[in-house]
Each structure stands twice: as structure tokens, then as C-alpha cells.
Amino acid sequence: MSVKILIVTGDAAESLEVLYPYQRLREEGYEVHMAAPARKKLRFVVHDFEPGFDTYTEKPGYTWPADLAFSEVDPGDYAAIVIPGGRAPEYLRNDPELRKILKSFFDADKPVAQICHGPLLTAATGSLTGRRVTSYPALELDMQAAGASFQDNEAVVDGTLVSSRAWPDHPAWMREFLRVLRAKAPLR
């Protein structure tokens, strides 16, 4: 019986923030499923940093099929959840099915990995109050408004919650998440 990890995402998610953990967790031996508002081909984006721009730029990225719709997810089937960033969290946080899924992971103290704008989702569930987190730096005030203590680091671990700023921090983010994951949901 394999250990399953859930990635929750949607259109306009950052390509690297979806596909890096997807591939890294599969490489480790976990079974990974991707859930979105509907079963469909998702269209990701590439956020890049260019000289002279005050913020990141956005370009079309990869496409990838969603394995499940949020309404089909049984959180009890999954040992952990990954929440990528990009623009997807801006609209996904309004999805009641997804909020219910996320809350169940926090209530069960299961490992949660979030990156970039992903913490907008966990903030929408009230799950960041009293927690230490990082996110894309422009969200510092959002994290504080959600009751979290913002830290501008590559990866921040608070119990089973592992957060990171953006795709340049992937090595630190996945290293810390795998440490938590191996302790809470070891492969047999």
C-alpha cells in the first residue's frame, strides 16, 4: 500500500511550484495526485524575475491534467498536502470544498507544504493563527493579518507546516518538507 500525497492547484499556478514537488515526491517513492476545481487540463504559468521590473513577470507555462476534482477528494486517503503558489491561490481560496480539505489536514496535524502565494489558501481557513510562516515577500502583511509571524527565510518549519517564499527556494523547502514527511508518513 503506497503513501499518497495530494497537490491542490488550478489554472495560473506557477509551473515549477507544481511540478518540482510533484516529481521530487514521486522520486522519493510517494504516490502523488493533483486535485483542482475540476478534472481538466490545467494551464500553469512561469513567474520570472527580470531587471527593471518592480515585481515578477508572468509567461505561459506547462499544462498538466488534474487527477481529481476537489469534490472527489477524501482527505483521509492522503498523508500530506502540497499547496503551490502562482495566481491560482487568489481564486482557489474562495472554493468551499478546498477550504474543507485544507482544514482537515490541519485538524489531523498532517504535513502541509506551502509556497509563494499558497499561504493565501491556508490563511482563508484560519489555520495560520499563531504559526510561523514564510511566503512570497509581498504577502508579509497578509500573513500578519492572518495571525501568523512572518519570517523572510528560504523555508520555515512550524510543526508539520513547512512554508517557503518562491521557486528559487525549492531545495530548502523540499528538504525540510521531506524531513517532516518521513517522520509523520514514512514509506514502508
From TrEMBL:
Q: Which family does it belong to?
A: Belongs to the peptidase C56 family.
Q: What is this protein called?
A: DJ-1/PfpI family protein
Matching Gene3D superfamilies, A to Z?
Answer: 3.40.50.880
What Pfam families would the database entry show? DJ-1_PfpI
Q: Identify the PANTHER family for this entry.
A: DJ-1 PROTEIN, DJ-1_THIJ_PFPI FAMILY PROTEIN
Supply the PROSITE patterns for this chain.
Answer: PEPTIDASE_C56_PFPI (PS51276)
Q: Which residues form the DJ-1/PfpI domain?
A: 4-178
| Alphabetized InterPro entries for the sequence | C56_PfpI-like, Class_I_gatase-like, DJ-1/PfpI
Which SUPFAM superfamilies does the record match to this protein?
Answer: Class I glutamine amidotransferase-like
- Give the source species: Streptomyces pacificus
